[in-house]
Each structure stands twice: as C-alpha cells, then as structure tokens.
Amino acid sequence: MMKRAAPFLACIGLLVIWQLASLALKNDSFPTAVEAIRAIPSILGDKDALVNFGASIRRMTIGFGVAVAVSIPLGLLMGRSRTVASFFNPLLMVIYPVPKAALMPIIMLWLGVGDLSKTLVIFLGVSLPVIYHSFEGAKAVEEKMLWSGAAMGLSAAQRMLRIVLPAALPEILTGCRTGLVLALITMITSEMIARQSGAGNILFNALDMGQYDTVFAMIIIIGAMGIGLDGLFERMRARLVHWSEPQFDIPLSFS
Amino acid sequence: MNARGFTSDLLLGLIPIALLVAVWQALVSFGYAPVTLLPPPGQVFWRMLHQISSVTFQEEIAATLFRLFAGFSIAVILGVTVGLAAAVNPAINAVVRPIVRVLAPLPKVALYPALLLLVGFGHESKILLVTFDALFPILLSTYYGASTVEQKLIWSAMAAGTPPREVLFKVVLPAAAPSILTGCRIGLVISCIVVFLAEMITSTDGLGHVLVTAARTFQAVDMFVPLITISLLGLILNGLLELLRSYLLRGFPEV
Fold it and tell me: Which of A53, A76, A80, A222 would bridge B110 by S-S if both were Cys, CB 3.0 to 4.6 A apart?
C-alpha cells in the first residue's frame, strides 16, 4: 500500500515545493502550481489542442514502433556476430552523440515539415539506445546455452529466437525504456523546430506569446504523459521479465 | 584481440561510413539533390577545416564545451552522492526512490521553458538542463551498482576492523565503479545532445546557435559543419572517458 502511494506522495510534494517557491519569489513569469493546474482543463477542453496531442502521439507511436522492430534484430545480430558488430559499430559511434532533433532543419529541407520528417527523427532517436542495449544483451548470453541448443539440433535462426532473444530481453527492455524517454524528447524538440502541430508546438508558442500559465500547464501535461508511458512500460516489463528483477528493496547492511 | 584482427575490424567498420559518404556524393553528382539543399561532402569538409581554424568558431565550441562540462560535472557529483546515499541508507532511499521514479521519465526539454523563465537566458539555464538530463542515468546506475555489491565483501571489511564510513569509500564505491562509469557514459552522450538542443532553442553562441543561424539563412553547408563538430566532440569525449575507465578499472576482471 505504502509502496503504491509513494510516487503520488512525491508528485504532491514536488507540487507543494513549486507552490511555496513561486509564492516566495513573487515573479510574474513563474505562476503558482495551483494556477498552472487550473489552466489544464481549458487546454484539454480545446479541440485544436486535442488534435495536436493526437498528432504527437501518432508520430511517436509510429517512430517508436518502427525503431524497435528494426533495432532489436540488428542489435542481436551484432551481439552474436563479430563481423556484423565491427561493420556497424563505428557508424553508430559517430551517429550516437549527434542530437537527432538537430537533424530536423536539414531533414525538413528534403521531406518538408510534415509527419514524415518528424517521425524519421523520432525513429533515429529511439533506434540507437535500443540497438546498443540489444547488442550488449546478446553479447552477454552464455555460450554454453548456445552450444547445448546447437547440440539438440536447433538451427541458427531458432537459437536466435529461442535462446538469445529471451536471454537478452531484460537488457533489451532497458534500452526500450531509454528509447521511450528519448522518443518524448525528440517529439517535443522536433515540434518546437518545425512549429506546425503537436504538443511541443503549443508549449513553445505559449512561451513566445508570454502565456506563462499555459507554459507551465503544458509542462505538467507532458510530464504526466512521460510518467504515464513509463508506468505502462514498467508494467509490461514486469510481466515479461519478472524472473530477472534485481532485489533492490534490501538495503546494504553495515552491521 | 591481436593487431591484425583489430585493423581488419577497423577497415570493415569504415565501409558503411565510406558508403554513406559515397551515396551522399553520388546524390549530388548525379543531380538527384540540388547543391543548395545537399552540398557535396568535399565542400562541407573544406568548410569544416576553414571554420575550425577560425577564432569565432573556436569560441562557439568553447561555449558549448563549457556548458557541457559544467552540467555534466554537477550531474556526476550529485548523481554519485545521492545514488550511494540511497543505496546505503533506507531512510534516504524511501525519500529518493519515489522522487526519482517521478522525475526520471519526465522529458526534461519540456522543463526548459520553465528554466528560461526562472534563471534567464544565460549559461545557467543550459547548464541546469544538461544537469537534469544527465543526472538520472548516473544516479540510477550508481544506485544499481552500489546495491548489488556483495554483502560478504562489506562483512569481511567490517570483520577486519574497518569503520563503516571507510567501508563506503574503500569497498562499496570501488565495487560499484563499473556500473557508475557506464552511467557516466550514457550521461555524457545525453549531455552532448541536450546542450546542443538548448543552444538551438535560445542562445547567442554555441554550436547549436551556429546551426540555427545557418538554417534561417539557408546556408546548407554551414548546417552540416556544427553537426559534424558535435559528433566529433562526442567521439573524442567518449574516447577520453574510455581511457579514464580503463585506468580506474585496472585490475578488474573483464569489464
């Protein structure tokens, strides 16, 4: 019971700190938490805004889905074959530190400001951590299990599907979780750069027009979206890989 | 790995990068993409050399690096301290865990408008954003590393007469080091990405600003230069971290 309530208590605590801070600062551009929360219903009640949110979520789902579908097989292959790994590794190392949303201005020139370029940017942002973690996961699979599988007559493809994939799954899901957060980040930033539709568009337009309560209300909404998605993902993960959960709840003992 | 295997791996890894450049060149030379949208790689390369030797561009790089390092170092110090404290002390753990659960999946870029309004358009808001983004991977992996330290190691140290405070620094911290460094690596890549994005949103200097100015004036060549620069910076920093890692973890079994 207590464990379930703790994140909610943390949310309330953060909001209270915000409220107190804004009351203490008395700054025009820093509305109190209550004011920001009051602005939420008017945003969510607006039909335009809902269309924007829908567009954001659609792009994110497509980008994330395609990225995961492509990256997991690639990562697993890289983990099991040294040739594949050394073929792709340098390229990925070069691409990794490039902010994917920063590619937006260039991609926009070719593909326009529409859905395609934003989805592509989200795809790029999600795929790298997923590839990296699948790679690490597949590399750490115990060799003996693969030998046993081969001895029992599994083909290479079957071994991949029935031994490597499940064994690497916890690590893969860690990558997907990082990817999920990155998908949100790239979604917001790509919409900020190509102001045409989406949640990021509402947020940064409000900032430019000085509607500060809308800015903060949007921050709450986007934050809630992130926390909600992460919670859903965590639930799915707990189902899939409950066998590998680390026992975090026992603190180290010094006695 | 022997020297010959290493060189052949390196050559194999250069193939996709070379292919990418070749496709890029082919697109331009066969006229599929107009030069104004996609400048040939040679032109970008010369522009890059020219820019790197110019003082103004070096100042932009310095501004970006300063923000990156400031934010990243704060994140490392905070993340390692809080992570260790939470792993060791149940009371701190009970407070930190729910807060981290709420804040970690939040897309921090959405907080950037709030930071702008609160601390202004200078260095501070960008450094804070980098800190926020790099903090959680470091904190989580420190916590993970420290809470999976073998309990027997601690008991042995205690039995040998080490006071609890020293156990923390002589046993727990070194044993958690591999995990902490992995977190730092993820944090570093994220810092590179975020500092660039923050500079793209609002800034008067830095690499992100160079990109935005180029995009607004449709100077396609100048748009590629900062992107390649940040990719190179990321590679160099990653390499330095790798060196630090192999120095700090000397004597560890295969990490």
Answer: A222
d(CA A31, CA A19): 8
Contacts of A203 in chain B (CB under 8 A): 110, 113
Q: In this complex, do B197 and A101 lie within 8 Å of one another by their Cβ atoms?
A: yes
Residue B240 tokens, joined: 């330095």
How many C-beta atoms lie closer than 10 Å to residue A84's C-beta?
17
Structural domain boundaries enclosing B22:
1-33
Tens digit of each residue's pLDDT (9 = 90 or more) over A182-235: 888 888 888 887 777 788 888 888 888 878 888 888 888 888 888 888 888 888
Q: Which tokens hold the place of A118? A: 């934003």
For position B132, which CATH number holds? 1.10.3720.10
The neighbour count for residue B97, using CB atoms within 10 Å, is 18
> What does pLDDT average to in each consecutive run of 10 residues of chain B (255 residues)?
67 83 84 76 86 88 92 95 88 86 82 82 88 90 86 86 85 88 87 87 83 83 86 88 88 65
**How far is the CA of B148 from the CAs of A55, A251, A253, in angstroms?**
42, 9, 12
**In a domain? residue B255:** no
CATH dotted code for A27-242 = 1.10.3720.10
* Pick from A11, A102, A216: CB nearest B197: A102
Q: Residue A1: what residue type? A: M
Is B140 a domain residue?
A: yes
- Side-chain-side CA neighbours of residue A75 (13 Å): 29
3-class SS at A195?
strand
Within-domain flag for B80: yes
B162: left (phi over 0), alpha (psi -120 to 50) or beta: beta
> DSSP class of residue A1?
-
Please tell me whether residues B83 and B145 are part of one structural domain.
yes
pLDDT digits (tens, 9 = 90+) for A76-94: 999 888 888 888 888 888 8
Amino acid at A160: M
- Considering the domain boundaries, does residue B253 fall inside one? no
Which residues of A fall within a CB distance of 8 Å from B199?
none
* ipTM of the complex model: 0.78
Tally A–B CB contacts below 8 A: 182
State whether B148 and A10 contact (CB < 8 Å). no
DSSP single-letter state for residue A98:
S
